[in-house]
Amino acid sequence: MNNSNPFLFAQDLTFALFIRGPVEATTSFFCGIIPEYASADPEPSHCDEQCADSPTRPSLPRAPAESVWLHKTFRGKAGARNYKVYVPTSYGREPLPMIVMLHGANQDPDDFATGTRMNILAEEARYIVVYPEQPQSANAARCWNWFRPGDQVRESGEAALIAELTREVMSTYNADSTRIYVAGMSAGGAMAVNLAVTHADLYAAAGIHSGIPYGTADDALSAMSVMNYGSTDFQFELLQKKSGQRAYTPLIAFHGDQDNVVHPRNCDELMRMNRIFALSQESTPSQVTTFAPEADGIYGHMRCLSCDDTGEVIGEQWIIHGLDHAWSGGDSAGSYTDCNGPDASREMLRFFDSVKLNTGEDREVSA
Prior knowledge:
This protein is of the alpha/beta class. The chain contains nine helices and 14 strands. Strand 9 and strand 10 (313-320) form a beta hairpin.
C-alpha cells in the first residue's frame, strides 16, 4: 500500500477494514498485496515424495562453483537494490544472452534461483542470469510494486530502476544487447509485464508465470481485486501502437488453472493485451491450440500460440491443469514450486532462444 504517504496509508487500511474485516485487512495490509486466502508465510513447494524420482524429469548437472554466483549492489537514478548474478563457468567475455529474474512475494534471489532451477539450465544454455532483490523496506511482503502508477512508467519507479540495473549488468558482463530477457513469478511476473510494456526496446522477450496484465490496478486494493477475480474492464486498445509499428515484447506465459492467489483469468487477459499491443489494426492474427494429457510427472496442459499475419509467433500461453500458485517444473527446495512439469524454465529458455531484438522496434524470430 501507500506506505510512504501517511494519508493514503491510513485510507487504504480504512477501506480494507470496511470491505474485508479487521483480521483479513490487517494481514493483507502488512503483507502488501497478498489476497485474503493466501498465507503471509512462504509456502512450501507443492511436491510429493514420488515427484523427486519422476522418470520424466530430465537429469541436470549440479550448478558449478559458487564463485560464479555473485552478490552485488546497484545504485542508480531511480534507486538502489541488491542483486545476485549467475555467470556460466564457460564465460570468456564474449557476448552472452541474459535473463533478469524477478522473484515473487516472500522470496529472495537464492530461493527463486533454487526453485526455478534457472541457474542450472543457464549453465547448459550459456545465459547470464540476474536476480534483483526487493527489500522489505520497499514492500512488507517483498513484492515488487507492480500496481503503483509510479512503478508502471518508463521514466521512474521500480520499472526504471530495474531497467537501469539491467543496463549496468549488461555493460559489466558484455551481454548481447539483442538477447536480453525478463521473467518473473506472481508479483515479479506482473513487474516483468510492466517492463515488457515500458521497455520494449530493451527486452527481446518476457516470461511470465502466474502474472497479471499491465495497467489493471493503481493501488493495493484494486491489485487485490484483480488478483482475486481478474478484470475485464481493460482499455488496452487505447495503448495500441500505430499501424506498422512493432514496439512490443513477445510473451510466453504460464498459469495454473487451480491458482488461488492470482486468478487464471489474468493469463487470458495478459495474452489478449499482448495481441493488441503486437498487432496493427490491419493484421489478421491466428491462434494454434494444442492439448496434452496428463502423463507421469507432467500435468495435462493447454498450449496456445498466437501469430501475426506473417506467421510470426507473438505470444505463447500455457494453462496447466491441476497446478496452483507455483512455478511449474520447479525444485522442491524452493518456495512456491511444483516439481511436476511442464518445465516452465526450460520452455522459457526455448522461447527466448527463438527471439532476438534487432532494433528498438523490430525483432528477429526463428522457426
